[in-house]
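Changelog-adjacent note: as of this version, every example in the card shows the full chain rather than a window. The one below runs 254 residues end to end.
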Amino acid sequence: MKLTIIGNGVMAQSLAIGLIKSYEVEMIGRDINKLKAIKEKIPQIEIKQLEDKEDISGKNILFCVKPFALESVAVRLTGTANILISILAGTRLDFLKKQVKAKTYTRAMPNIAASVLQSMTTITGDIETKDLAMKIFSTTGQCVWVHTEYQLDIATAVAGSGPAFLSLVAEALADGAVKAGLDRHLSTQLVQGLFSGTSALLKHSHPSFIKDSVMSPGGTTAAGYAALEEYGVRNAMIKAIEEAYNKACELAKK
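Full-length structure tokens:
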């Protein structure tokens, strides 16, 4: 099967890197120089500059432009796609149907871990496309189907924006180790191993169980955990998800 990615940003490139292992991938974008640079990095893909009348008839489209660019790109597309899969945050299926012609429509929210086949992708849309969409995104990591766009917008805040939130935590942990006196390269290596190991544990254990199993009475973990609670880290994370979700809803109204 051939997949056509429209867009050449970071997320489009992350998906391409993951998808080329299982599919033929074509990338269409407005900046030919940027496309050529991507081709050098991902030689297996085909590249094509977006034309004024770009025929998408019969193609399997992954729509990966920025939400604000949707209409300016859609007006240049002609024909009817086989399937349109949009990764545009906060962009409702009803609006997509008014902009781009396709037989079926799907929304997906992957994340940049697709480039290392570790994306957590949430999908919703026309039920007849469920199996195909799940098959496509299962090649870039894990995926889950939800029944409403409301649920997908919440998932956007968690799995879509989540890598940025966790990266902030990872950076802060490494900075803390450096502040305490550990070399930067050792601090970074420890945090990488920490996230990898904890991810494996989370597949089998509830977060609270992991926390309780580490926190001994009067110990170092208890002291550090108390500091996290004192400075509102838990509340900050909850608020981060809430605000990211609110932004997705805001985008949907425009």
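Structural remarks: The mean pLDDT is 94.
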